[in-house]
Every structure is written in structure tokens, then in C-alpha cells.
Amino acid sequence: MARSVHFHITKGWMNDPNGFIYYKGEYHLFYQYFPYAPEWGTICWGHAVSKDLVNWDQQEIALFPTLPEDQNGCFSGSAVEADGQLRLFYTGVHYDEVDPTNINKCVPDHLTSAQLAMSSPDGYTFDNFANKAVIIPPIGDPALGDRVHTRDPKVWRGSDGWYMVLGSNVDRKQGEILFYRSDDLAHWTFVNRKLMDPGYGWMCECPDLFALPGGDTVLLASMMDYMGQGHDESVCFTAGFDEATCDLKLLSEPRLVDYGCDFYAPQTTTDEAGRRVMMGWMRMPEPVDNKWIGMFCAPRVVEVRDGHVYTSLHPNVREALIKKTLATTTHRPYLFSLQLSEGNHANVGGLRIWQEGHRIHVDRSSVYHAKPGYEHVLSVTPEVGDTNKVEILVHGHLVEIYVNNGQYVVSNIVYGLGGSFTTDANAEITVIGL
What we know:
CATH superfamily of the largest domain: Glycosyl hydrolase domain, family 43
Shape: globular
Number of helices: 1
CATH topology of the largest domain: Tachylectin-2, Chain A
Helix content: under 10%
CATH architecture of the largest domain: 5 Propeller
Distance between the termini: 14 Å
CATH class of the largest domain: Mainly Beta
Number of domains: 2
Structural class: mainly beta
């Protein structure tokens, strides 16, 4: 059992959270996983279980390739409960031409994607040889979607059936979302599509559409080459959705889910209390101790307040941070709380935070190992108020900064973070009680 608000494996490669669900009194968290080296390879689904979103127990691999349609990887997807069973949905990949120097890779774009399903009677037993089925074959009509890049099924129960969204693109120039409907989770019918603004990026990954308890609907989408800046970002919208037609209307401009440099591919579920809880992948430029790479942010509650999507620290994590002390260590999670005004600064072990021009700035340049594709060191939020509540959650290689209870969040991977904390604002320091 690992007590950690930031889940990660101890060996291998980990990326997108998958199949995140509260099922039979436990949280099940699956994730893209290559267990043999801290680099991307033939993807399986790793699996961890928790009763409280803080203490995680890593399980055996849940999904691995067994069919021609998934022989080169079991990629992102989701989970639902139906008739007491846990039902998994994922994208299977078949390489049409393998990289001659590494069977874990293909010649770029020489692959085919299909959507598959699998069932488990208890959330712990997975028969990869008998319980899989192809539910949506590779797309054959380029006018509908991309045969290579259509993926990441997110399934939910609607008022009159089951619904699925898939991420895709049009001509590698414009992201789109495809909508399907089913009565039995086995037979799926295409219903509609939503074309994203071409400026948002050429491909839409990991779409997640959900209604909140108060009636608001939110869309999360991870856009590749967002705004033509050469960087992939996860964005959120308030939305309107018509089940009968699967017509999706975006009611707000896109806003980053996280204003740090590394957050991507979030997935949500409903927690024990009915809240919408989200976890996301934190991309890392290099492995830790040459053993593992990739981790998840702390679980966050998604809400809409006055038309603005907030993602605040989940109360289970906050309740775990109960022992107040002035001692700090990067080996245990701890939480700073302070008020920042214009010109105020804070320094967390070398990570600099300050307010300037009514924006929160974060500079990790002194505690980060930049490399090609991971060059970003400075993060800046949109405009905030004159004085702002800032909470800083620190644990090992990840620092999460929550501004005004989740109005904006800035999360960054760090290396070599020190244990010191200085600020010219009043701060209350809290460290997890063990």
C-alpha cells in the first residue's frame, strides 16, 4: 500500500489515466503502462485500487495485447458499471508496418486503430483471452474520421442509453469529437460529430463530456499543437449537449485545465459523494533514478462557478494533510497556504512564485532539467484579483499551485527541489500526518 497524493509506479513508463471509476466501494485507476523500461513501449493497462484516493494499492496488469486489433497496444479508454460488472472500453492499435529497429514502435502513421471492450466480474479479474470484443472497427470513411488517429473512448450512461465520445481529426488539420450510442454496450451506432476550431489544434485526444450535479455540462479535451504553439494542452469548456441528436455546443472559450507546463490527458469520474473528480498525467522529461517516469496529479474536484470551470483539491487529500508543522521535506506531501498580493514572492525549494500584473507567475528554471520537447520553465495564469489565496502542494517531483480554491491551477514537474521555503507574505505550513 502506497500513501501518496501523487500516484506513480516504481518501475517503467506511465502516461494517461484510464478507466477511472468508483466501483463496489473502491476507486479503480487504470493507466497506460510499459513495465519493462522507463520509456514508451507496447502499452498495457496498469491498475491501482484505493478506498480514499490517497492510499493506492498497485495491482497486476489488467489489459495486455491478445487480438490482432490490439496486438501493438491497449491504449486509452474508460470504464462503467453495468449489471454489477466492470466494463472497460479502450483503443486497440495494430501496426501495419513495424519499425525495423524496435518492435515497440511503428513507421509513423502506419497503424490502424479500433475500439474494443472487455468485462470483469469484480474489478480484479481480467481474462484477456476470452472477454474481449471489437465494438467499433477501424474507420473506413475519411470523411467521418481518421483511420489512424481515432481513439480514447469515454463511455457514460445517459437517460435513454449508453453514449460514447471518441477523439479524432479531419485531414490532420482540425480536431473533432465523434458521438456513438448503444442500448447494450456491445452494438454502437454513430450519431453525430463536433468539429473543433482549427486553431485549437490538429487532433482532439481524450475527450471527456460530463454533467455536474448542479446541471452544468463540461467538456475536457486534450488538443495536439494547441493554438499552433507546438505544445499539446488540455482545455475545458462549459457546454450544452442534446442527447437525442448528440449535438454539442461549446458555451465558453477554451481555458487550460492546468496552467503549468506538464499536465495532460485528464479523466474524470463520480466519487463516493457524487462529486466529479479528475486526475491527469504529469509528463516528465527524464526518469527518476533511471527506474520510473510519469505520475498523476492529486485528485481534483471539478465544479462550475459563475460560468467558470474550477478544479480544486479533493477534500480527501486535504483531510490527509492534517499535521501542522514548520518542518518540510520533499519526501512527504505538504501544503503551504498564503495570500499573494501584487509584488509578493514565495520560493519553494528553488521554485519561484510571485504575483505581477494581476497574474500568478511560476518559474522552475533552477529546479528542472529542460530537454527538447520539455523546454518550458515559466508558467503564467490569466488575470486574478488584487489579493489571492494560493495553496502549494509539494511532494517529491511535483508541485501543484491552487489559486483561489481552484480558479486556476499551475502544476509543474521538478527535479532537485530543496526543502526550504521563504516568502514575504504570511504563510501557514501543513505537512501530512503519518
